[in-house]
Design a protein that fits this description.
It is a single chain. The protein folds into two domains: 88-274, Vaccinia Virus protein VP39 (Rossmann fold), CATH 3.40.50; 292-397, 3-Layer(aba) Sandwich (Rossmann fold). The strands form five sheets. A seven-stranded mixed beta sheet has the order 10-9-8-11-12-15-14, with helices on both faces. The chain has a six-stranded mixed beta sheet with strand order 18-19-17-16-20-21. It is globular, with a radius of gyration of 21 Å. It contains nine helices and 21 strands. The chain has 405 residues and is an alpha/beta fold. The longest helix is centred in the last third of the chain and has 27 residues, at 290-316.
Length: 405
């Protein structure tokens, strides 16, 4: 779901004994490995199948869910980012989401920036920096509502230079680690970027001194509590709950104003400001019991395995079998089902009438009546989409129920 890869902050983690590795959120060396994760096929954040493997753990001190930034993970992300293409299904155009407030589908960055403006009054002029700016979807959304601002981006290369230059108010692209970016900014954004960094606390600490007085940090990440598919993304190192996102920001020297789960479904939005408390002791207390977090992730992994088996069974029952969506879960299931998938269904006009993974992408109302379509979504969203499209003559197949004991 990210727009751009972020392999490191400038520091290269060294391989550690997994029994002694430090938690990326609280620094305690109490990671509980989940060996069952290694058997589940994975996916990349730019929606490409990726083989099973990797290591996942939950911190027994804070409940932080994370992979290990070891040599294996660094080698894997180097392979992923060598051919990275964000939103290639729509030629670089950002995915749409259902805006819960309006009931309409909109570009995700437009919704995020609209909620930011409502939550925090911004001055008529200022400087904004987007870490991992990619093709500029977030900067474009900012430009439309802040015409008096100057916009800057950071990325790993200049492949999107021309697209960025076309954004009104765009000033400069920095191709360097975030810590080496010059200047100070009134707004710094990390939209689906923080989870890619090998040293997330070091990244946030490097940004602390780049906020202008009164400046704010906006972070958007997956909500792993509500989105189990996040665990499957090979290049996502950290998998946040509202508690652990706040914990990491606290331990990085930021003052968290709010962490919202309602701006975008299955995602967390955090607004924070800078402090000067660089030397305070690490914070370790969170609301969710770490033992509960461990049980939750184990339940999610079992559910993912059950969903894969359910999709295999349903796919074998029909010669014409479709998958709803063209993003993370749809790609993951198609990698498992292979030739059993005949077509994809997507509500996003920018993805329709194209091919994805060698199969046609159809608008919902263009699918042959009576076709069987597997809803590659979390159960909550699958039900909402099914209700909205109930008038179509299609047989929607819903994923297994996900419940926590």
């Amino acid at each position: 779901m990210s727009k751009v890869p972020h392999p490191a902050t400038g520091a290269s983690p060294k391989s550690e004994d997994p029994d002694r590795a430090a938690c990326l959120m609280c620094s305690e060396r109490l990671l509980e490995p989940l060996p069952e994760f290694q058997a589940i096929p994975r996916i990349t954040s730019d929606c490409r199948s990726f083989p099973a493997g990797g290591r996942l753990a939950v911190c027994s001190a804070c409940g932080g869910v994370q992979k290990y930034p070891d040599d294996q993970w660094l080698a894997e992300i180097a392979n992923i980012y060598a051919a990275y293409a964000a939103y290639f299904q729509a030629d670089g155009d950002e995915q749409i989401i259902l805006d819960s407030r309006s009931g309409t589908v909109r570009r995700r960055s437009d919704v995020i920036i609209e909620r930011l403006i409502e939550s925090r009054r911004l001055p008529p002029t200022g400087k904004a920096l987007d870490i991992g700016c990619g093709s500029g979807v977030t900067l474009s959304a900012l430009s439309r509502v802040l015409p008096g601002w100057k916009f800057h981006g950071q990325d790993l290369d200049r492949r999107n230079q021309s697209r960025l230059a076309a954004i009104a108010g765009f000033d400069s692209l920095f191709v360097c680690t975030p810590g080496d970016i010059p200047g100070r900014y009134d707004l710094i954004t990390l939209i689906h970027a923080l989870e890619h960094f090998a040293s997330p606390r070091e990244l946030l600490q490097s940004l602390l001194g780049k906020l202008a007085p009164g400046g704010i940090l906006l972070v958007q990440v997956c909500d792993t509590v509500r989105n189990p598919y996040d665990l499957l993304i090979a290049d996502h190192l950290t998998h946040f709950s509202a508690d652990t996102l706040r914990l990491l920001a606290d331990n990085s020297g930021f003052e968290v104003e709010t962490v919202q789960s309602g701006w975008v479904n299955k995602e967390l939005s955090m607004i924070a400001t800078g402090t000067e408390r660089f030397s305070r002791p690490p914070v370790r207390s969170v609301s969710e019991n770490p033992e509960h977090a461990l049980g939750r992730v184990r339940t999610q992994l079992r559910w993912l395995a059950a969903m894969a088996e359910d999709a295999r069974r349903e796919g074998a029952a029909s010669p014409e079998f479709g998958i709803f969506g063209t993003s993370i879960c749809a790609t993951w299931l198609t990698g498992i089902l292979e030739e059993r998938v005949s077509f994809f269904v997507d509500e996003d006009p920018s993805r329709q009438d194209k091919e994805f993974m060698g199969k046609p992408v159809l608008a919902p109302d263009k699918v042959e009546p009576g076709s069987r379509v597997y809803m590659a979504l979390v159960p909550e969203i699958a039900s909402q989409v099914g209700d909205r499209l109930h008038a179509l003559p299609l047989q929607f197949i819903y994923p297994p129920t996900l419940t926590f004991s």
